[in-house]
Design brief:
heterodimer; A: mainly alpha; 11 helices; 1% strand; disordered C terminus; B: mainly beta; Methylamine Dehydrogenase, Chain H; four-stranded antiparallel β-sheet; 29 strands; 46% strand; disordered N terminus
């Protein structure tokens, strides 16, 4: 495929991973897709350029590059065509390409299930526009604190993006404070010598990743449109920003895939809830001490959630094409039919169970306070009536008369609320009632097996 | 003599093949029928945990009851006991030691059923029907989690009438799953939230839904070292999304697939798209089963991204499914799920629960 260049065989867009034949086309693509102002449609040259334009002209801030895949939405990275791409991403790309060629040679085509194959591409393309919005919860795997970089660990599907694999080889011998900063920062007037000048810019990573960039951004003079900037990045042995977080020791151990390595599934669990190792009482306060931890629903440890959920819901509404108004009034309707397909589901967008539960037939049994009788003599307390007689549709409670098809209830086994009689009177009467239907001749429970036949259970 | 005493003449035998002369399609897969099934649609199925010797199946139904059977190795099913609510039962689950069954109902309560004494007491109260119930067993606490249409998720110590914790949901809870230390809850309006349960339950992440239609069912899956790592989410539009929590490459690792649709290749007729009523993961193989309103079940291998099997079509939707603790038995319930509205409801139509041997059919496809 042409001469081998150092950077890459074919130009590709860092923001969305697409391939192009020519770098010119790539740049046109970037300008039109990623560096286009959504307000006035002016095409800028770079991400930072777009951010500045929006700020100055429209007084609006942008925090992500439009139409970029997650992990590649960084607005402060100065990427122009193939220039400015961080070295680690280059390596990952190279590995990906290598893997792809290997895989397509080795793998037989899987012939099963059009249904799977059909939707992979559909799904992946549909994912991308959704994920343009920076999901704060989604953090590039490299940068996640506490997530050990052990892609070799079992459980990883094959074809792991070499991003992880590329890391360990870089670790050894890496000066501890290598400019992990995005290389886009480097060419800022070329003033920053890699190395000791950088350390102050390395705060803790992912949540503060933009923070890092902001602080770095403040130092050098802002960069204008930069055609013809020297491609300094290739020379820099830039490392993944996340590496800086980890002291070299575990990183050195990273390459060895050890099964016992437990990836904390929820690395931020430590932040969200203070660890309470001891026994915990009924309200999650530890029984022995009372630390000043919050037991209420978590405060926004991820403050971005409030933003992202707001934007999520608005996106949801628009993309789902459902006019969801308030639930109590009109339920939203679904778009059910098209020329080629028909959704076998009632039109309203409430769940099937909700729809069914609205039927009077299923509502009659809801206990209402004080409903002693519905035209039928209340046979004492609820449940008190039966000498268990199989097959007798009980008429007490007055609720069942019109339910003959289901009539075989036999004995009603209302378990009485076993605690705090006053607390909840859902059964209308006499909560402190001892459940009348003892398991007749209580068979000695054999181990843990439920009794074979209990009086109460007989129908 | 059947304990549940519904329609007479039901032997407690196991493989009651009807041998009917009419070509009724209620059991085209010739699977084992559970005796004395409930009298109205089955909403949930759950098998006992491995701590109990043998296999016990519980099923909640719209007839307000939850029933328990013992399933013997020869396929015989023996009705054991039953409890009632005052409204349809929407969900049920076992405690980890197999001594209690928790049930959630439209009567806005949840109950704890002690199987040894056959007593049930109320342990939870909501302002609207309780749609999901799960038992959480953490190293430093245990509780019951209930999700309701009142837009709350509550956690209950069964000894106290007030919840240990209440978490607000963005919308009505439609389905949930718990595999410690992770919980996934899907709500109306395509809401999707993941919780972490270590130390105490807290919201971990709100996820933008990978599906474009109403969420219907969710099931968490585990990785090769048995840690929960993601979930499968089913919608009413015949589609399931496989979503990992922290994948190395989300655009590649997460995907959706279509299922439970008619006329796959036949383009002349419009395709009917059915809701996915339930998803269950095989506890050993990690492959999954889906059941739909179309009356079929399918087995899938999510890692090889292939379908393993699709069943014949039953004459009713399949409303629930589950595996037993070692994955040898797959249970699925055939009853009307309201997918065609009230008009198609026939109260006379029988509801069934079938048991199928699942040891072989769910083995993963070898990846090349």
């Amino acid at each position: 495929m042409g001469r081998k260049k150092k950077k890459q065989l074919k130009p590709w867009c860092w923001y969305c991973n697409r391939d192009f034949d020519d770098e010119k086309i790539l740049i046109q693509h970037q300008k039109a897709k990623h560096f286009k102002c959504h307000i006035c449609h002016k095409k800028l040259y770079t991400g930072p350029g777009l951010a500045i334009h929006c700020m100055q002209v429209h007084k609006e801030t942008i925090d992500a590059v439009p139409n970029a895949i997650p992990g590649r939405t960084d607005i402060e990275l100065e990427i122009y065509g193939m220039e400015g791409i961080p070295e680690k991403d280059m390596e990952e790309r190279r590995r990906l390409l290598e893997q792809k060629t290997q895989e397509s040679q080795k793998k037989k085509q899987q012939d099963d299930s059009d249904e799977y194959e059909d939707d992979e591409s559909a799904a992946s393309t549909s994912f991308q526009p959704q994920q343009v919005q920076p999901q704060q919860g989604y953090i590039p795997p490299m940068a996640q604190p506490g997530l050990p970089p052990v892609p070799g660990a079992p459980g990883m599907p094959p074809g792991i993006p070499p991003l992880m694999a590329g890391v360990p080889p870089m670790m050894p011998g890496m000066p501890p404070v290598m400019p992990g900063m995005p290389p886009g920062m480097m060419p800022m007037g070329g003033m920053m010598p890699p190395g000791p000048g950088i350390p102050p810019l390395m705060p803790g990573m992912p949540p503060g990743r933009s923070g890092l960039l902001n602080s770095c951004y403040g130092m050098p003079p802002p960069v204008g449109p930069r055609p013809g900037m020297p491609p300094m990045t290739q020379a820099q042995p830039v490392t993944a920003p996340g590496i800086l977080n980890r002291p070299p020791a575990p990183a050195a151990a990273a390459p060895t895939p050890q099964p016992p390595v437990t990836k904390p599934l929820f690395p931020s669990a430590g932040q969200a809830a203070a660890a309470v190792p001891g026994p915990v009482g009924t309200d999650f306060k530890p029984l022995n001490a009372t630390p000043a931890t919050t037991t209420e629903p978590p405060k926004p440890t991820f403050p971005a959630y409030t933003q992202s959920t707001a934007s999520t819901t608005s996106t949801t509404n628009s993309t789902a094409a459902k006019p969801a108004t308030s639930i109590t009034s009109k339920p939203a309707t679904l778009t059910t039919t098209s020329a080629t397909s028909k959704l076998i589901h009632p039109d309203e967008d409430i769940s099937l169970e909700e729809r069914r539960a609205q039927l009077p037939k299923y509502q009659r049994n809801l206990p209402r306070p004080g409903q002693a009788s519905l035209g039928n003599p209340p046979v004492g307390p609820i449940g008190g009536m039966m000498p268990p007689q199989p097959g007798i549709p009980p008429q007490q409670q007055g609720m069942r008369p019109p339910m003959p098809p289901h009539g075989q209830y036999g004995a009603h086994h209302q378990g009485m609320p076993g605690y705090l009689p006053g607390a909840m009177p859902p059964y209308g009467q006499g909560p402190p009632m001892v459940p009348p239907y003892q398991s007749g001749p209580p068979r000695p429970p054999m181990g843990m097996r439920p009794p074979v036949m209990s009086q109460g259970g007989r129908y | 003599m059947s304990l549940f005493g519904s329609t007479p003449g039901f032997a407690t035998g196991g493989t009651s093949m009807f041998g009917s002369t009419t070509t009724d399609n209620h059991n085209p897969m010739k699977d084992i029928e559970v005796t004395s099934p409930p009298d109205d649609s089955i909403s949930c199925l759950a098998f006992s945990p491995p701590t109990l010797p043998g296999n016990f199946l519980i099923a909640g139904s719209w007839a307000n009851d939850v029933r328990c059977w013992e399933v013997q190795d020869n396929g015989q099913t023996i009705p054991k006991a039953q409890q009632m609510h005052t409204g349809p039962v929407l969900d049920a689950c076992w405690s980890d030691d197999g001594s209690k069954v928790f049930t959630a109902s439209c009567d806005k309560t949840a109950k704890m059923w002690d199987l040894n004494s056959n007593q049930a007491i109320q342990i939870a109260q909501h302002d609207a029907p309780v749609k999901t119930i799960h038992w959480i067993k953490a190293p430093n606490y245990s509780c019951v989690m209930t999700g309701s249409w009142d837009k709350t998720l509550k956690f209950w110590d069964t000894r106290s009438p007030t919840p240990m914790m209440t978490l607000q949901l963005p919308e009505r809870c439609y389905c949930a799953d718990v595999v410690h230390p992770m919980a996934a809850v899907a709500t109306a309006e395509r809401g999707l939230i993941v919780y972490q349960l270590e130390n105490q339950p807290s919201e971990f992440r709100r996820i933008e839904s990978p599906l474009k239609h109403q969420h219907r069912c969710v099931a968490i899956f585990k990785d090769k070292v048995n840690k929960p790592t993601g979930f499968a989410l089913g919608s009413i539009e015949g589609r399931v999304a496989i979503h990992y929590i922290n994948p190395p490459n989300p655009a590649k690792d997460n995907f959706t697939f279509k299922c439970h649709r008619s006329n796959g290749t036949n383009t002349s007729a419009p395709q009917d798209i059915y809701a996915v009523n339930g998803i269950a993961f095989h506890p050993v193989h990690g492959t999954l089963a889906t059941v739909g309103s179309d009356g079929r079940f399918s087995f899938w291998d999510k890692d090889a991204r292939t379908k393993l099997k699709t069943s014949e079509q039953l004459d009713q939707p399949i409303s629930a499914c589950c595996f037993n603790h070692n994955g040898n038995i797959f249970a699925y319930a055939s009853s009307y799920d309201w997918s065609k509205g009230h008009e198609f409801y026939n109260p006379q139509k029988k509801n069934y629960i079938f048991l199928r041997n699942a040891a072989e059919e769910l083995k993963p496809r070898n990846k090349k």
